[in-house]
Write a structure and sequence with these properties.
The chain is α+β, with helices and mostly antiparallel strands. The chain contains 19 helices and eleven strands. It has a five-stranded mixed sheet. Strand 1 and strand 2 form a beta hairpin. The termini are far apart. Bound molecules: protoporphyrin IX containing FE.
Length: 458
């Protein structure tokens, strides 16, 4: 027998929009999950969305044969800049399949290994900054990791240098992107009538969007005029052909994918590095274990690509940080046919479903009663590999899962190993407890640290 999907009380036209905190929508979605349980339904200004929150339901909708990626709300707004680029393409847009097939080898582990020297170049700029500014300097890890990840993806993907570590403020591109993404979230929760009155915000949104498109298309034009021999993502798109159709990507599609890589490739990784740093500081015994592993492997020598394959505890630390705080914790799918979830909730074909991975990653049925604790040990010694693949999905799932995962992973291994090898870290405010802020992705809020060169280096 079918059971109705619960829905909080709503108001005419606007639906449940007042149930959603504008600053931290995920916080509201998780609070509602505590109240309504494994599934509930919201009406967001006329758009009906079913939220699934338990690991079991998330597993059920993680099935490419029955559900496909949906691009609603804020993500649909991101299309203004990223169009049919890989991240924001609708399921039936031909450029997605072409770009996906053409770029898969370029994002493969072997090619990402070739990017190690460029990653190290940018990582050494962060080390230099933290060393030179000294132990009294108050570091915003989220800002410096944003500099690092933006500069890294730009250098590795398109041989472009933002040089973010050489200025007090973040580069104009980064400011434009941050404001653009924030506004994408806001627009998704504004009624059309309110939106039409906000001419100032719209003008700023359009200007930010134009700035991003101008920078990306200038990079494409420059490379066409001045070709280089480098196995980067830009060359893969400029000269690569889809193995199935023989088609290449036009300059417009390439520009949109460059913007996609800059957006998708830096915010998420910067958040992961920030949350990892927070959890290590809160759990000093885990930090000691991690440092011992890094010291044993590197023997105090500069970190090499070979070292990165010998750090199981660091892998476990990153997996656990991403479980507790997935930086892209929500994803959306639509049902391809009428179906019934958990044998009792009826879902109509075309119904939008939001997958709340933050809740699923904290589900005690899968992760135990200590699911809220930071315990990298649960990801070690084959335990991670033994889990069903749908249980841990900070990189999404199936056909539309993250193409940049090997890139992000190598970068994070290098950066975290380098930091624990080089610095003693401490909280600026020892009583700080994690708070989270949300743009398109999630990051720690008001999190500040100090870094001093290690007193007991190996
Ligand atoms: C897709 C997370 C790093 C590029 C995704 C998705 C998630 C995700 C959850 C699926 C979104 C959905 O289903 O709607 C992350 C996390 C990262 C990370 C947590 C770092 C810790 C990167 C990097 C790049 C990248 C470094 C690029 C260099 C993409 C692209 C897609 C994607 C292009 C769309 C793939 C497709 O639909 O074909 N990512 N990502 N990501 N990511 Fe990542």
């Amino acid at each position: 027998m079918s059971v109705p999907i619960p829905q909080p009380p709503s108001v005419p036209f606007l639906g449940n929009v007042f149930s959603i905190d504008k600053e931290l929508p995920l916080g509201s979605f998780s609070l509602l999950a505590k109240q309504y349980g494994e599934i509930y339904q919201l009406n967001i200004i006329g758009r009906s969305v079913v939220f699934v929150n338990s690991a079991e339901l998330v597993r059920e909708v993680s099935n490419d044969k029955k559900f496909q990626k949906n691009v609603p709300g804020a993500l649909a707004e991101v299309r203004r800049a990223a169009g049919d680029g890989l991240f924001t393409a609708y399921a039936d847009e031909p450029n997605w399949a072409i770009a996906h097939r053409l770029l898969m080898p370029a994002f493969g582990t072997a090619n990402i290994r070739n990017m190690f020297d460029d990653m190290k170049d940018i990582c050494s700029q962060l080390v230099l900054k933290w060393s030179r500014f000294g132990p009294d300097y108050v570091i915003s890890p989220t800002e410096d990791f944003t500099r690092l990840t933006l500069d890294t993806i730009a250098l590795c993907a398109m041989n472009y240098r933002f040089n973010s570590f050489y200025s007090e403020t973040l580069p104009p591109f980064c400011e434009a992107m941050t404001d653009f993404l924030k506004e994408c979230n806001a627009r998704a929760n504004r009624p059309a009538i309110v939106q039409s009155l906000m001419t100032g915000a719209t003008a700023k949104f359009e200007a930010d969007c134009k700035h991003m498109v101008d920078v990306a298309s200038e990079i494409v034009k420059h490379r066409r005029l001045h070709p280089i021999e480098k196995k980067d993502l830009l060359n893969a798109m400029l000269y690569g052909k889809d193995p199935k159709t023989g088609q290449g990507l036009g300059d417009d599609a390439i520009t949109k994918n460059l913007i996609t890589f800059l957006i998708a490739g830096h915010e998420t990784t910067s958040g992961m590095l920030s949350f990892t740093t927070y959890h290590l500081l809160k759990n000093p015994e885990k930090l000691i274990r991690l440092r011992k592993e890094v010291d044993d492997v590197t023997q105090g020598n500069p970190i090499t690509l070979e070292h990165l394959s010998k750090l199981p505890y660091l892998n476990a630390v990153l997996r656990e940080a991403l479980r507790l705080n997935s930086t892209a914790a929500l994803r959306s799918v639509t049902a391809l046919e009428d179906c019934v979830l958990a044998g009792k909730y009826s879902i109509k074909k075309g119904q939008g479903i939001a997958i709340n991975n933050h809740e699923a990653h904290h589900d005690p049925k899968v992760w135990g009663e200590d699911a809220d604790e930071f315990k990298p040990e649960r990801m070690l010694d084959g335990k991670f590999e033994a889990m069903p693949p749908e249980s841990w999905q900070p990189f999404g799932f199936g056909m539309r899962a993250c193409i940049g995962r090997p890139f992000a992973w190598q970068e994070a291994l290098l950066v975290m190993a380098t930091i624990v090898q080089t610095f003693d870290l401490s909280f600026h405010d020892p009583s700080y407890n994690l708070e989270v802020k949300q743009a398109l992705t999630l990051k720690p809020k008001d999190f500040y640290i100090h870094a001093s060169l290690r007193s007991n280096a190996a």
